[in-house]
Each structure stands twice: as C-alpha cells, then as structure tokens.
Amino acid sequence: MKFLLIGNGAREHALGAAIVRSPQKPELVVFADKINPGLQKLAAVYEKADSLTDFAALEKLVEREKPELAVVGPEAPIAAGAADLLEQLGVGVVAPKKSSARLESSKSFTRDLLQKHDIPGNPDFLVFEKFDKKEEARIAIRNFMKALDGQFVVKADGLKSGKGVKVVGDHLNGVDDGLHYALECLEEDGRVVIEEKLIGEEFSAMFLTDGETLAALPVSQDHKRAFEDDRGPNTGGMGTYSDETGSLPFLDPEDLEAARMITAKVLRALNAETGETFCGVMYGGFIATKNGVKLIEYNARFGDPEAMNVFPILKTDFVEICQKVTTGKLSELPLEFEQKATVVKYAVPEGYPNNPVAGSEIKVLGLPEGCEIFYAAVDVDTEGRVLTGTSRAIAVVGIADDLTAAERIAEEGINKIEGQLVHRRDIGTPALVEKRIRHLKEIRSA
Ligand code: AMP
Ligand code: GLY
Fold it and tell me: How far is the CA of 303 from the centre of ligand 2 (A)?
C-alpha cells in the first residue's frame, strides 16, 4: 500500500519514520515544497512542488500514485482544504477538512465555539469586528483592555505562523501599544481577539481522533523563545520535553483530565457546528493556572517539535492507527508508548531567527545511543552537502528512562552536529524543570 505524507519539516521526517517502520511495509509518497534529506531517504516517491498548497500538483500526484491513506503535517495545506480534496479523490486522510480546521485557522471561531457551548477553559475575551466607525472600535477596545487591568493579549484572527499573538509585557508596552496593534489586525483581517493574559505553565496536549474517540499522546512543553532563560524573540519552537509517564513534572492528573474533558466537549461542539466529522489531531495549547486549566489555542495538526516527543516512542503501528482514525474505529486500538522521557532540542543557524547564517555546512558525526535526529529546514547543494537555511535546521531527540538522562543524551547528540549552529542548552535540564515546578507551586499556593 502507498501512504501519502504532505510536508517536509522535522515533524514530517518523524512522521515518515513512523510510517515506514510499519509491519505493513507501506511505500512512502511525500508531497513537499523543499528537499528534506532525511525524509527523502525514507520515501519511495518524493514529489517537490512549488508550494504545499499547489493542489493541482497534489491532485496529479494522487492520481498517479493512488495512495490509500494520507497524513497532512503543516497547518497551511490543512486550512486551505487539502483534506477536502484528498477525500474527494478517495484517499483516507488524517487531517480535518477546511471547515473543521477553523479550530486552528480562526482564533475567534474557537473562542466563540467554547462560549456558545458552555465549555470551560476560555479566558475573558472579546472579538472585535471591523466597525464602520473607527472611533467606536478604538473606544471599545481601550475600555476592554482597561477592564482587564491592562493584562491583555491581542490575537490576529488568521494563521500567522506564530507571529499573530502579542502579549502585554512581552511584545506590547501597554494599552496604547496594544490598541495600535489591534487596529492593525482589524484593518488586515477584519477581526481581532482581545483576551485576558493568563499566568501559569503552558503545556501541549495532543489527541488523535476519529471524530468520536480521543487517544491521548504524550504531553510536552514547548519553548518558544529563541534564547536561554526564555529571552529573545519568539520562534517556531526551540525544543520540548516530556517525562517517562507521558506527562510533565509540574502537572497533576487532574490537569490532564481537564485538558481531555475540554477537548472532548470541543470535539462534540465542533462536529455539531460544522456537520462534519473532525478526523485527525486536536492539539490543545493549555496553561495550568491558579484557577485550573485554561485553553490558549487549538491546532488541528501535530505540533512541531511536539511530534518528536511522540513518534520515537510510539509502539503501536502508526499505519494501523491511521486506518482506524479514517474509518471511525479508533476505540478498537489502544495506543502504546514506551515509558521513556524525551527531550527535543533544535539546532538552529547562528543568528536565528532575526539574522540567520544560511549556507554553512552541517555534518552529523556519530550519535550516542538513545538519540535520533530529524532534519528540518536545510539546503542540499549539488554535491549533496547539507547546509543551513534560514530556519530551524535539525531536531535532536534524547530518549531515556528519565528526563535528566534524556536531556544529557540530547545535549551529547546535538554537540555531535558540526556547523554554524546554536541551540538552547537549558531545555529539559533539572534546573529549568525545577523552576517550572516552583513557578506553578507558587501560583497555586498564592
Ligand atoms: P498562540 O499562537 O495562540 O499559540 O500563542 C502564542 C503564545 O502566546 C502562546 O504560546 C502563549 O505563550 C502566548 N499566549 C497566547 N494567549 C495567551 C493568553 N491568553 N495569556 C497568556 N499568554 C498567551
Ligand atoms: N509547537 C508549536 C506548534 O507546533 O505550533
């Protein structure tokens, strides 16, 4: 059988590895817009198009290769309707259709959905539409920001590659600054979400679903900031960790249960709202706060780097999982994971994200045991040399019995990669993990 994978980042390299190790021995067909040397090695067919939303090229590939199943990695093709097209072409697809993908592609849609269906987890929020009278919008937004005691977040409504959210204190100086950005969003998208700034510890909880059953994947914590101690500009994610229980040391079982309960209710509400069956991944960005678990946002796909905390330790056949997901039979297949901690660190070009050094050669020397690497945005020259591009280059995963050991392996592995690269040494270290535990304890005992 042939299995189509759309995308070419490190997340997709990890997905590809899980697909080809299936005992069903599928042939991997990749639809990419860039060469990923790791993924290319795994693929029987590697089709490079101009973009992942070039659906004419995608249709041609599907008609030629006739895959049985497909999984879509990144948000852009999902939001543009890749699943709708693939379903029309008779392919079973692990990704939601365009209408259901609004769960990720519209922040206001999801906030409104939770509110309408009385689902817990929303912060205080208001959605502003493009008013006829700009002055009215200006006054209403300013008043709401003040009502939140100046502790607010401004969210552009559409997909912005992680750059649409601005938080007071981090990216915005105060009400005037926030108002300026909110009006800019209104102008651009016709809609903006203003919400309460939540304080706590964030975690990523992903669930595979066939529209009814939710199968929980190991929970992890991402690190968005470029530099150690969570300083510097935001990135796509510099690394993640997940402990040997598939959770995080600062979370209680009740926190995980709250995330599942919210997700189950959102799934039902979403199916009712769209008249479709959501099929694929519901990835909640949650935050454990003084007042319980709140929802930051949903994504309708696997996380990157979060997927790399999942696939290296997945024991169940991923192809069988996809077969169950696409036929509404996920309840028949409990997912099994190795009881291992995982730490993912991204090696990025020096100067990333603002002034990345592209074109520097990368060499991977011998990796330690328990270490896997996944290629992300690298270039390959005519002689087959791997070079840095302008984005995250290689993800290194350390896998071990506990976090301390997994972090050491990840660190050892990443230091075996030569090139003008940097990474965050602090991710998954005992010092940082302890800090997170203390932080949440302080918040919850205050
Ligand atoms: P998003 O693109 O929605 O994942 O937001 C990016 C980041 O902005 C999140 O990972 C959070 O760190 C932060 N953020 C988003 N919404 C809130 C909120 N209501 N309170 C505090 N931080 C937030
Ligand atoms: N880890 C962030 C994301 O996948 O959006």
Answer: 4
